[in-house]
C-alpha cells in the first residue's frame, strides 16, 4: 500500500472519449482538454470491452511521458470482474491516472490502491504515482461517504454523477420542469464539493449532457465555479473551450486577489481590514492565496 499524500491537480477540463473508438480517442488527445479520459465503462458495450482495452493500451503507449500524463482511463467498477481485466491491460502503458466509477466509499479506493501498487511494481512504475479521480455519488449509499476520503491513497479529486444516481434511486428523471436538478442531485453535488474540500483535493463538476447547448454549459460552469468547483467533465470537444475559459481566472480576478494578499502583507498583525467598503478577514486572504497559487502566481 502506498502513502496517503493527495495528488494535487488543477485540471479545468476532463474530456471523455469512448475506448472502442481510435478516432475519438485521437480527437480527445489532440484537444485543448487538460485531461482526456478514455472510457472503458459506460461508453463501451460488454462484448466490445476486450478489444477496447487493447485500443486504449496502444493509444496511451504511443505517447511520451508528457503526453501520457494527461491520458487517463475510466475503468469499470471494482465490484465487477471487468475492473481487474481493465487494470491488467492498461497499466503496462502507464496511463496518467484513473477515474474510478461507482465508488462505494473510501474502501474501494484503498482496494484499488492495493491493485495499482502491485501493477506499478510489475511494470516498473514508481509506486503511488498513478492518481485517481473518484466518482463519488453514483449509488445511494456512496453519497453518505463523500466526507470519508480525507487522507485516502492516490486521491486527486472527487466528482459526481446524476445519471447513475437516478437509476439507483428509481427516478424517472433527475430534473424538474424548469430544467434544474432535483433536490437529491443538488445534495449529491454539495456533498461532493464538501468532501473534496475536506480531503484537500479538487472538486470536479459533472457533465453537461446537451453538448450543443454551449450557453447553458457556460452558465452552469460559472455557477458551480462560484460555489467552489474548479473543473468540469466534458463529453464533446466543443465543450472544452467554454470550460477552460470559465475555470481560468481572469486578470481582473488575479489582480483583486493580489491586492488582498498585498494589503494583509502590509498589515501583518491585522485580523480584519477594511477595503473598498468591505471588511476582509483571514478567509478572504486564504481564498486569494489559493487563486494565485492555482494560477502559478505564488
UniProtKB/TrEMBL annotation:
Magnesium among keywords: yes
Positions bound to Mg(2+): 138, 164
Any one Gene Ontology molecular-function term assigned to this protein's record: magnesium ion binding
Cofactor field: Mg(2+)
Residue ranges of coiled coil: none
Residues at which substrate binds: 74, 138
Example GO BP: oxaloacetate metabolic process
Top-level taxon of the source organism: Bacteria
Annotated InterPro entries: Aldolase/citrate-lyase_domain, Citrate_lyase_beta/mcl1/mcl2, Pyrv/PenolPyrv_kinase-like_dom, Pyrv_kinase-like_dom_sf
Keywords attached to this entry: Lyase, Magnesium, Metal-binding
Family from the record: Belongs to the HpcH/HpaI aldolase family.
Protein known as: Putative citrate lyase beta chain
Species the sequence originates in: Erythrobacter litoralis (strain HTCC2594)
Amino acid at each position: 500500500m502506498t502513502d496517503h499524500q493527495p495528488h494535487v491537480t488543477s485540471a479545468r477540463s476532463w474530456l471523455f472519449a469512448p475506448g472502442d473508438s481510435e478516432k475519438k480517442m485521437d480527437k480527445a488527445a489532440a484537444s485543448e482538454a487538460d485531461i482526456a479520459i478514455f472510457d472503458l465503462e459506460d461508453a463501451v458495450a460488454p462484448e466490445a470491452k476486450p478489444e477496447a482495452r487493447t485500443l486504449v493500451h496502444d493509444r496511451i503507449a504511443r505517447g511520451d511521458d508528457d503526453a501520457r500524463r494527461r491520458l487517463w482511463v475510466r475503468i469499470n467498477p471494482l465490484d465487477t470482474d471487468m475492473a481487474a481485466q481493465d487494470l491488467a491491460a492498461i497499466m503496462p502503458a502507464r496511463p496518467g491516472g484513473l477515474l474510478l466509477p461507482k465508488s462505494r466509499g473510501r474502501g474501494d479506493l484503498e482496494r484499488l490502491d492495493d491493485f495499482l501498487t502491485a501493477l506499478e511494481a510489475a511494470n516498473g512504475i514508481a509506486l503511488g504515482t498513478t492518481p485517481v479521480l473518484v466518482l463519488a455519488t453514483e449509488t445511494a449509499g456512496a453519497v453518505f461517504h463523500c466526507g470519508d476520503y480525507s487522507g485516502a491513497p492516490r486521491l486527486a479529486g472527487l466528482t459526481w454523477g446524476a445519471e447513475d444516481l437516478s437509476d439507483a434511486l428509481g427516478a424517472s428523471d433527475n430534473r424538474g420542469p424548469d430544467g434544474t436538478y432535483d433536490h437529491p442531485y443538488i445534495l449529491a453535488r454539495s456533498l461532493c464539493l464538501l468532501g473534496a474540500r475536506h480531503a484537500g483535493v479538487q472538486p470536479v463538476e459533472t457533465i453537461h449532457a446537451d453538448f450543443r447547448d454551449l450557453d447553458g454549459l457556460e452558465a452552469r460552469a460559472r455557477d458551480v465555479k462560484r460555489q467552489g468547483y474548479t473543473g468540469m467533465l466534458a463529453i464533446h470537444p466543443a465543450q472544452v473551450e467554454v470550460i477552460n475559459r470559465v475555470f481560468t481566472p481572469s486578470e481582473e480576478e488575479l489582480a483583486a486577489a493580489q491586492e488582498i494578499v498585498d494589503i494583509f502583507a502590509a498589515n501583518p498583525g491585522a485580523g480584519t481590514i477594511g477595503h473598498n467598503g468591505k471588511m476582509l478577514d483571514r478567509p478572504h486572504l486564504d481564498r486569494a492565496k489559493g487563486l494565485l497559487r492555482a494560477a502559478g502566481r505564488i
